[in-house]
Structures are given as structure tokens and as C-alpha cells.
Write a structure and sequence with these properties.
By secondary structure, this protein is mostly helical. Helices cover about 80% and strands about 0% of the residues. The longest helix is centred in the first third of the chain and has 35 residues, at about 55-90.
Length: about 250
């Protein structure tokens, strides 16, 4: 047993050494860049207070609202389209569950930013491309969660409804949907939380919203304006997380 632990530690050490060498860690560059980093942070979070409640500030609030709408639209469409995917992927409802699970796994392999780059090329830059990227990726995530909820339903309830002579649709709407509806809503709200963050990121590749403004200000080294945008994003994400958590807590 001791030689196995010794071998394990050697492998871990080799992996860490390889990882450190691969990322080209240079402490000298960190020390030399530290004063510059402090200057940038000072401009972003100290000097930027002069821009609070300015025209730029309210303009960025509008862009943040647009980002929320991108996340909402993408999540809403995904929540609807994930329902048939969930049932088709559930082993207790579909003979082709393995095939549809492979499709959901394939969709999840594409990160939102890659999908955003593709859709910006297809439909042009703007919020529509961002909403499509969020929506497609969310189908993969929500479809998986919906599938798990469907596969864990209480069969006893369905048998009870079936015992009184219910047809397929009556069993579906009175025996299945009531069991999974709360989970569907809960997962959709949680996915919206993540989509708000993702919508900011996809905006950096031209998919609209505050992310587009953020990358433009970074490229122009307008650190005070970058700071205002980051502050707005942090506060908005925190509020969305808090509100959605309160809603989900009452649903469960």
C-alpha cells in the first residue's frame, strides 16, 4: 500500500510540475506588474466614483437591462424547448432516450461564447445573437436537469391515476406534470441566474448588452468607465441571485 501512495504522490507532483511549466509562471513579471495593477484598480474603483449618476452611468444601466433581457429571452425559450427534450431523454418515457441524451451532451459541449461567435457571424452582431447563444446552450443544461426530474417521479401516483381509468393525457397532466412542474420552474430560475453572467460574457464578442461596452472600454483603456460597468454588473448579479434564491426557496 505504501508504494502505491508513493507512486500516487509522484504522479501528482509530475502533473503539478507540468501544469506550472505550461502556464509560464513568472514571479518577476508579477512583481513588476503589481504597481501597474494597483494603478488600474485605483482608477477603476476609486476614480470611477466621479462617474456615478452621470449620463454614462445611466447609459450603462440601460445596457445592463438589455443584458437581463437577453438572458431572460434565452432562458425562456430554452425552458420551453427543454420540456420535449426532457421527456424524450427520460428512460422511463422514451425508447430513444440514449439518442436524445447524446444530443443534449453534444449541445452542452459548446460554450456560450463559441455559440455567440457563430451566431454573430450568422445573424449579425447584437442582442439577438446573444439570446440565441444563451438559449441553445441552456437547452443542453435544462434538458439534462428536466430528464433527471422526470426519471425520478413517483410511479405510485401514476399507477393511482391509471387505476381509475385515466387515459394517457389525463395521466400526463394529472400524474406527471404536478410532480415535475416545481422542479422545472426551479431549474429554469437557477439557469436564469447563470444566464445573466453568460450574457455579459457573450456581449464581449459582439452579442449585445453591457459586455460589448465593457470590451470596448477595456480596449480603449478607459479604466474609470470599466470600473462603473463592473460595479453595475456585480450589483445586478447579486440582486438577481438574491431574488431568484428567495423565489426558489418558496417553491421547494
Amino acid at each position: 500500500m505504501k508504494w502505491r501512495w508513493f507512486l500516487f504522490l509522484i504522479v501528482v507532483f509530475i502533473v503539478y510540475a507540468w501544469a506550472i511549466s505550461s502556464v509560464d509562471i513568472n514571479l518577476k513579471r508579477i512583481v513588476e506588474g503589481l504597481p501597474k495593477g494597483i494603478t488600474i484598480l485605483n482608477r477603476m474603483f476609486i476614480n470611477s466614483t466621479n462617474l456615478l449618476f452621470s449620463d454614462f452611468f445611466f447609459e450603462m444601466l440601460f445596457e445592463m437591462l438589455r443584458t437581463l433581457l437577453i438572458a431572460y429571452f434565452g432562458t425562456f425559450i430554452a425552458s420551453l424547448l427543454s420540456v420535449p427534450f426532457g421527456f424524450l431523454s427520460a428512460v422511463n418515457f422514451s425508447k430513444f432516450s440514449r439518442f436524445f441524451k447524446i444530443i443534449l451532451n453534444f449541445i452542452r459541449t459548446f460554450p456560450e461564447i463559441l455559440l455567440a461567435i457563430i451566431f454573430v457571424s450568422v445573424v449579425g452582431p447584437g442582442p439577438f445573437a446573444g439570446a440565441l447563444a444563451i438559449g441553445i446552450h441552456s437547452i443542453g443544461m435544462l434538458g439534462k436537469l428536466y430528464t433527471e426530474a422526470i426519471e425520478n417521479i413517483d410511479k405510485g401516483i401514476i399507477e393511482a391515476v391509471d387505476s381509475v381509468g385515466a387515459n394517457f393525457w389525463q395521466k400526463f397532466f394529472f400524474g406527471i406534470i404536478p410532480q415535475v412542474f416545481v422542479y422545472f420552474v426551479n431549474y429554469s430560475i437557477y439557469r436564469f441566474e447563470l444566464a445573466v453572467r453568460s450574457a455579459t460574457i457573450v456581449g464581449m464578442v459582439g452579442a449585445g448588452g453591457i459586455g460589448t461596452q465593457l470590451i470596448l472600454k477595456v480596449q480603449n483603456r478607459n479604466w474609470e468607465q470599466v470600473g462603473i460597468i463592473i460595479i453595475i454588473v456585480i450589483i445586478t448579479v447579486a440582486l438577481v441571485d438574491f431574488i431568484s434564491y428567495q423565489i426558489r426557496k418558496r417553491l421547494v
